C-alpha cells in the first residue's frame, strides 16, 4: 500500500507512506511522467474499454479521426525546436444510448441470407460498402469485398455462408451472421446503414469512467474529461482529491465553454472553487487551422503538455502552435487578475500564442502548504518525489532479509538518497543539499512518539530548484 499519512499515525497495512510539508525558508524517478488519460467520443472503435496508444496514428487506426487527437499531439507537427508529447495515452471511448452498429442484409434468390454488421458502433460504419461477386477462378465460390469509401480494405471467399462467416471472423471492419443457407446474389456494392456514434453522452457515463479509472493507477499522471460541464468537472476535482490521498498522485485539467471563456468573473470563480494544487483551470479558448476550440478542449492540449513536460522544463512563455486566442484580455489588468486567481491563461505575444504562467488553482494554501504549491512545476517535483519514495520503500520492504535495526534504517536512508534525490539533483530539479534521515520525532533523545517495532519513520529535506521565468535587467546609460 501507499498514500498519505499524518505524523503520529500508524497504518494497518504494510507499505510506504508519505507526508508532505512545505518549509519555504529551511527545507523543502518520474514514474508517471508522460502518461495521459482521457475519455473520447468517436465514430469508431471499442466502447467502454481502456486502450493504450503511443502516437496519433495508432489512435486514429483504432478510433478514426477524433478532434481530441489533434490537441493531444498538437506539438508533434512542430517544424523545429523541441516537440513535447506524451509517451503513453490511455484512451476510453464513451458513447450515448443511441449508439448503434451500421448493418446490411444480403439477400439470396428467396430472401435474406447474411447479415453484415460493422465491428463497432458509429457513423464510420456507414462508410463501409459490401460487394458480392462470383469468384473468377472457381464458379462454385463467391467473393465478398469490403470497401471503405472507394478503397478496397478486405475480401474473403467461400463456398457456403458458414465458410464466409468464418472467413470474416478476424475482420477489423465487419462481422457476418448467417440467416439462411442460400448464397447472396452478386451486387455492385451497397453501403451499410443506420450506424450511430452516440455522441450525446449521458453524464453517468463520465462518472462510470472515473470509477473504472481507479483500476488504472500508475498508468497515467494527468487526466481531463475534455468537457465544459461544470458539475462533471467539479466531480472530477473531488475524485482527484480522493485519489491523491490514497497515493495516486495525479492531476486534473479542465476548462469551460465559449461563453465562460468570455466571462472573467466565471473563469475566476471556477479557479477559486477548485483551489487545489493538483487541479488546473484553463481559461483561454483558441483558434487553430480554421477551427475554434473552447477552453475545455484547450484543456486536452494542456493536459498532454503537463503530462509530457520534463521536470526541469517550464511551461512559462511556452510557444504553442495555435493561431489566435478567442479573447485577448488586457495584460495590465484582466490577465493579471485571472492568473492571480489561479487560472492558466494563453496569451498573444507578437504573432505567437503562448502559455503565460504555468499555475494551478491553489491560491489559498491550506495547512502544510505554501504559495509555491500554486506552480505546476513545484507540484510535479513533489509528486515525483512522493511517488519515488513510496515505490522505493515498497521495494525495500520486499528485500530479504528484512530487519528493523539501526544499521538497516541507515542503509535505507542511503538508498533513498541515491535512488530518489540524487537523480533529481543531477538535473537541477532540486538543490544538491538534500537529506534523508531517521525522524527525530521517533528516534533519539528528543523523540515524542514511540514507533511500532515493524515501522520505520524518516524525514526528507530538500529545496525545490525553481526555474528562471522572470528576467529583470537594470540598464544604466553613461
UniProtKB/TrEMBL annotation:
Pfam families: Phage_sheath_domII
InterPro entries, alphabetized: Beta_sandwich_Seath
Phage tail sheath protein-like beta-sandwich domain ranges (all copies): 105-195
Protein name (record): Phage tail protein
Protein's organism: Aneurinibacillus thermoaerophilus
